[in-house]
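Field reference: "sequence" (input) and "structure" (output). Example, Nitrate reductase:
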Amino acid sequence: MNSIPLVELHSSTAANVKTTQTTCPYCGVGCGVTAKVTQTALGQKVTVEGDLNHPSNYGKLCIKGSNLADTLGLETRVLHPMLGRKANRIQSNWDTAITTIADKFQQCIDDYGRDSIAFYVSGQLLTEDYYAVNKFVKGYLGTANIDTNSRLCMSSAVAAHKRAFGEDLVPASYEDFEHTDMVVLVGSNTAWCHPVLYQRIMKAKEQRDLFVVVIDPRFTSTCEAADLHLPILPGQDVALFNGLLQYLSKNNYADHAFIQNYTDGLAQALESSTSESEIESVATRTGISVEKLQLFFEKFAQTEKIMSLFSMGVNQSSRGVDKANSIINCHLLTGKIGKLGAAPFSMTGQPNAMGGREVGGLANMLASHMDLDNPSHRQLVQQFWQSPYIADSVGLKAVDLFQAVESGKIKAIWIMATNPVVSMPDADQIKRALEQCELVVVSDICQDTDTTAYADVLLPALGWGEKDGTVTNSERRISRQRAFLDAPDEAKADWWAIAQVAKKMGFSGFNYINSHEIFIEHGQLSSYENAPLAERNETSHFRYFNLQGLSHLTAEEYDELAPIQWPVIDKNQVDADVSRLFQQGEFSHANGKAKFIATSAIDPVNQTDQEYPLILNTGRIRDQWHTMSRTGLSANLANHRAEPYCELHPNDALKYGIKDGELIEVRSKWGLCVLRAQIGDNIRRGQIFAPIHWNDQVASDARIGKVVNPVVDAISGEPEFKHTPVTIQPFYIQWQGVLYVRQGFEHIVQPTIQKTVWWTKVMQTKAVRFELADRQKFSTTTEQLKRLLPFTDEDFEWLNLEDQSAQISHSVVLKNGVLIASLYIAPTDLLPDRDWLASLFKRERLSAMHRKALLAGQAMSMGNNDGPLVCSCFKVGKNKIIQTIKENNINNEKQVTACLKAGGNCGSCLPEIRGLIKACQTEYAE
């Protein structure tokens, strides 16, 4: 089957329905999406489902992708260029904004030099946007001070690939997971972070004898169906894989012919790992039992086809590059690479992290997989661009870049499609840097984020559904992201904004009319003086990344481009030609060989001490994405993990005087935040875990980034998000409560809510929920109630119930019989069921029984209390699933789906359902 036929129905119109094939904007799986826009009497209605023909997902979507339509409203959008920081911001126009940026950039160059300007961009950009901005910065402004939030998730993998293979590439495809005999998931909660690929692995496991290993400090949802979980101590991956390398070598499991013909450097790699030559020493260092290590080593040694998928748990480390190389070393030693079902596989976090790598999105790279520190590469790129300048030294990586902003070395910064005040480590340092920067430009779709507050120029960008271009997923598959909605008001493509500033500064080479023209130029650069593998010689600039076959597409062919993996030498090539690389043993180093990299196990930087005795690990959760600017708009995604929380072991909870569900303060040398305690034995003693998503727009004090250690990998510059020394303590409060406000009225209560010492905001259907807590004793006086519920108009009807001795206050506000707000102040165990409360806001009218129940804070019948949400698609809670498991003596997740539908749509909740079944079986056994 050809991989580049024209898409037969990429965009069609039938009656009042327009159907468009596009690509999901979330994780690195790169799922194909079918978007349908229906014209109704009330306006446009958008529905989203998986694209059955897209080879990355074949119609499957996770819960985030399934709810994309919820995120397309314009209520939070920036729709016009704006000038001035938040308090003094005024609406402007594009001409003024472009002139402001261009004039300041030129002044910075004249007064301080080219390196006084910086850009911080994002894996959310399309490849065409990414290409235009890198061309402008590195080839025209003449600085390499452009980095990307992809630095935070996969730059260690980039460096490891280049050291081992000579080029940054993933040599396999998702298809390989269906043909392998063993999957090793390292530092990846795949079930939550890449659910569609995880389901693909689980389907393969059902159909054949597939052995799954999970290497993770925590017992996550990914571990539920694993054959072996290795609960490694934080930062000890190098020790583990060096131990495996030694075991394979000592027991003669090496592929000597492969090593001899296709690799260099084995002796040095073995020498550097001698301290892990005994399995007992590996067990001591990693915290994994000898028995589990022995099983893992034997299985790896004796299994011919192995896929080792590694992700953020490997990359986000001060030793991330060595961790990745230690994994790759084991595949090189055994020749388990370049074959069906056998390869190391780096899984990226963002939809276009790979596309950003193609165009040189990192500060140490040039476009088309060329190196900024290579003079011949610089000459080649400048020659192709015909640019007046070319950056001649590596630029500042993310953490160093913002430190240079704070020190005043960088005078102007342009931030595109990212929110560093939330996502960066030591995040309050980013605030300080932006506060004093002379010019901060932000391109975004959201008017109010933690970062846009510091924008001197705020530019309205196009969002998903409006922008048009390409993205590249983790298996090197280029897919079209097509527009199916009109651009709202003055929102423009990011490449267009860059081109306008470039032209305003007098630069040629940016007269692009559309994304097609940029893609063609990108493709032509990829093949410029790039000899195909068959023509490779000692003097050629060979790179696997080559889009020669796509470099002359017509506008129609580009518009109808089907998903295709690179390299693309011939647009009519078949998938099998490129689905796995290195089949001929040809690597990208000058001598054509791969390199073993000597790595040594050392302790992570900044170990714990008496003041900071615990290790903080951060990561993602199932139903949210990055800093919640999009997913936070969806009520369907809000309730799985509704509040910012912190996982900790029961023994640590006892030691620090913390109870489950109470608020705790997490503190490091860099900052502190307040989270809800979630106590369980899925995490080791001495470790805690907190999600990365919450920001200052939706919570008072939950930006975990400001707590995170800013130390970085010395090679990749990727920050250490998995190993921050912290301490915890109870966050003492006088009262807590929950407030529900009907959507459209939340602005009335928001100013008062934000004055409480702790709050978090959760989107619900028809309502907004606020969890509240304060350190001042709650008074049930009318004055204090009306400060929290300032509905003083005579049109509002109030219902109140007070018990001052028990510190209980229930208040209900109605208007014309419609529920407007409800506030409950009470001890935690007496607060009402949240799902029940939310359901009442869906009613047009309340009966007398509903009013009584609201005032009492309890449904007349509590039989509908399904418990914490597990299945977001069908709104099935934990209690309901447990009840069904017990009543029907269920022993597999398919039976739960048959009874409740839970798990029958996107499948994201299946790992948790498996966990509940296991828990019930354990209870039976006891």
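Confidence is low (pLDDT under 50) at residues 1-9.
The longest strand covers residues 32-40.
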